[in-house]
């Protein structure tokens, strides 16, 4: 197991190194930030001084070497626009993104799994068909447009919930969270629901498919033969076995929620790191874009690493197969 | 009947396949709807009441008129209202649909071609080359498509060619994985062993015998991915990193209406959104039906 974990760790580090090159090389082509930051009326001497101060006059590989050396110290450069460290900007906005992503994950689990169980248990019934239709619709609805419709319906027409922003936050364990107050929840509800929509459809599908698969198994037939009530069969035997694949999917789905938060945050003006990314791309704020991408890649690689380890723990075939190859 | 079948074997097979497809009413409606939308998009220059890109035809006095309003000058009626530039929404949507469909299909064709080549090569090469290619594909699939597209577009800047490129980069791995999987299964079947024993040349085995049998599974993946590509393009354009403002796709039209939504001018965002939803829903329903037809065991999931 230790050897397996070490191999996975080395792979994860290699991925991180490759991604840092790709991200840096890719983002280097992102326009010329000097034109944006230096006063167009500035003289050539002034211009050259600014370029040198930002390190943009060096060859690309020197810039990359400096960038890696600094990144290992946790310094990803200062934002061209804000003038503060890029990493600090990302970390300031991260709790907002994590909060809305976790809320969306919770909503998706609490609605998607029960609906999927019903759809899988009674596929031909009225409710089963309705749930399946709902999941196809959920897959087809463009997230950003649903967000707009939420705002139009619940904020503009009905006036029940705020149209955007984050509302009051309070500091919990060094992070600004909005789930501690009612006003915070009112701001959180629409973005979280919007972000959850696609995952609800996905969970309905996954749960329904594995429920049907499980219902064909011998132990379910045995449980039925024993005369167990259907509610108990579903609640105990089916649910328990349907959750196993979900546990492993969950990690990756959380990562994808963080990535898709870019869209939801832009719609609801939610001050997370996704909105920061879009703003930074439009303003050509290169260090912030690089910092965001590296932080997210690090997040993904860590999640994948943990999921791989879990796989190895849950299913010995995975790590034995890995050792033989 | 048998004579007819002999005379037009392809035609009767097509009719039989269509009849089998249409057994599901919802799927039949979805296919019809999609074909109508595609036709409307194709015919946009002829059926649109106005050329929304021709600034000479736009009247700023007509800006943000609600649906059903008449133009200040001329006899045009804006059935779906106008946007901030005084553009007829119906015309803008028809042209937007054209762009969305073009980008979606171009990206799918590109990703399919790339995935097909890579997947077949991977399956045929086997060994460490296969392992390496699949490792790269897995690695990429671990990141959401939107993230990969965002990274690329942040680097490349907006533009129709660039967004197609970004979509191909985000989606090729799905095809490569699917092609490889099917090719590995098909390769072991008896008919391939038979044509090998016949001494046919490997390229001929590959393109005449192996490839056609991999296609059904690919068509399902491709149909699903067209819907995903169109949705992704709309999202990226909405975020302002996709298509340029001069060629508004449906996503950009929705984004343009965003700021007016709060003041109750719903039509600028709502109508393009409904069109986008209808398009993606139709494509997904067709994909769903194809999936069941090709793999009947899945019926009811």
Task: Tell me the layout of helices and strands.
The complex is a heterodimer of chains A (325) and B (301).
Chain A: H1 2-28, H2 33-37, H3 44-54, H4 60-72, H5 86-121, H6 126-140, H7 143-157, E1 170-172, E2 175-177, H8 182-215, H9 218-225, H10 230-268, H11 273-282, H12 286-314, H13 316-324
Antiparallel strand pairs in A: 1-2
Chain B: H1 2-7, H2 9-21, H3 25-42, H4 44-47, E1 69-70, E2 77-78, H5 89-125, H6 127-141, H7 145-156, H8 160-187, H9 190-197, H10 202-239, H11 250-261, H12 267-294
Antiparallel strand pairs in B: 1-2
Describe the structure.
The complex is a heterodimer of chains A (325) and B (301). Chain A is globular. The model of chain A has no long low-confidence stretch (mean pLDDT 79). The longest helix of chain A has 39 residues. In chain A, helix 1 runs antiparallel to helix 12, helix 5 crosses helix 12 and helix 10 runs antiparallel to helix 12. Chain A is mainly alpha-helical and 325 residues long. In chain A, 35% of the residues are buried. Chain B is mainly α. Chain B has a single domain, classed as MetI-like fold (Orthogonal Bundle), CATH 1.10.3720. In chain B, strands 1-2 form a two-stranded antiparallel ribbon. The radius of gyration of chain B is 23 Å and the shape is elongated. The two termini of chain B are 37 Å apart. In chain B, 43% of the residues are buried. The N terminus of chain B is likely disordered.
């Amino acid at each position: 197991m230790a050897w397996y974990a070490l191999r996975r760790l080395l792979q994860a580090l290699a991925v991180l190194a490759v991604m840092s090159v790709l991200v840096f090389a890719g983002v280097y082509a992102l326009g010329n930030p000097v034109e944006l930051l230096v006063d167009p009326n500035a003289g050539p001497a002034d211009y050259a001084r600014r370029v040198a101060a930002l390190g943009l006059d060096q060859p690309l590989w020197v810039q990359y070497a400096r960038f890696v050396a600094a990144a290992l110290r946790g310094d990803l450069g200062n934002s061209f626009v804000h003038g503060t460290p890029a990493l600090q900007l990302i970390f300031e906005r991260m709790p907002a993104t994590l909060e809305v992503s976790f809320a969306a994950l919770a909503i998706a689990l609490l609605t998607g799994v029960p609906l999927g169980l019903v759809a899988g248990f009674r596929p031909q019934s009225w409710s089963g068909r309705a749930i399946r239709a709902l999941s196809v619709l959920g897959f087809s609805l463009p997230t950003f447009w649903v967000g707009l419709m939420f705002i139009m319906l619940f904020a503009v027409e009905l006036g029940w919930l705020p149209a955007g922003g984050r509302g009051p936050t309070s500091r919990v364990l060094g992070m600004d969270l909005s789930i501690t107050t009612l006003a915070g929840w009112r701001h959180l509800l629409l973005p979280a629901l919007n972000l959850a929509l696609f995952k609800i459809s996905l969970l309905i599908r996954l749960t329904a498919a594995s429920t049907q698969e499980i219902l064909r198994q011998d132990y379910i037939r045995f449980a039925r033969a024993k005369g167990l009530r259907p509610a108990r069969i579903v609640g105990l035997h089916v649910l328990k076995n349907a959750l196993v694949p979900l546990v492993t999917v969950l990690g990756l789905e959380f990562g994808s929620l963080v990535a898709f938060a870019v869209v939801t945050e832009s719609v609801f003006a939610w001050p997370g790191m996704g909105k920061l990314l879009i703003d930074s791309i439009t303003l050509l704020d290169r260090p912030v874009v690089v910092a965001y991408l590296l932080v997210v890649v690090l997040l993904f690689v860590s999640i994948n690493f943990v999921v791989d380890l879990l796989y190895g723990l849950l299913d010995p075939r995975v790590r034995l197969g890995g050792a033989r190859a | 009947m048998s004579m007819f079948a002999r005379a037009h074997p392809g035609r009767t097979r097509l009719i039989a396949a269509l009849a089998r497809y249409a057994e599901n009413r919802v799927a039949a409606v979805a296919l019809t709807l999609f074909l109508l939308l595609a036709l409307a998009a194709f015919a946009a220059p002829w059926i649109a009441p106005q050329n929304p890109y021709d600034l000479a035809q736009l009247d700023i006095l007509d800006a943000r008129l609600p649906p059903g309003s008449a133009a200040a000058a001329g006899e045009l009626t804006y059935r779906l209202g106008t946007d901030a530039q005084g553009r007829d929404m119906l015309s803008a949507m028809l042209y937007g649909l054209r762009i969305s469909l073009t980008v979606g299909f171009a990206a799918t064709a590109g990703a399919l071609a790339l995935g097909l080549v890579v997947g077949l090569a991977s399956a045929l090469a086997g060994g460490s080359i296969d392992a390496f290619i699949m490792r790269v594909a897995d690695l990429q699939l671990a990141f959401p498509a939107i993230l990969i597209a965002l990274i690329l577009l942040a680097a490349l800047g907006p533009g129709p060619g660039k967004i197609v490129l970004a979509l191909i980069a985000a989606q090729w791995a799905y095809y490569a994985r699917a092609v490889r999987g099917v090719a590995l299964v098909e390769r072991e079947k008896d008919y391939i062993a038979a044509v090998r024993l016949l001494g046919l040349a490997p390229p001929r085995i590959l393109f005449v015998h192996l490839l056609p049998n991999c296609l059904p599974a690919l068509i399902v993946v491709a149909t699903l991915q067209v819907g995903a590509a169109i949705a992704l393009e709309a999202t990226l354009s909405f975020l302002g990193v996709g298509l340029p403002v001069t060629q508004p796709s449906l996503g950009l039209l929705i984004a343009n209406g965003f700021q007016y939504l709060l003041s109750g001018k719903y039509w600028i965002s709502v109508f393009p959104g409904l069109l986008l939803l209808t398009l993606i829903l139709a494509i997904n329903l067709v994909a769903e039906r194809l999936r069941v037809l090709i793999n009947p065991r899945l019926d009811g999931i």
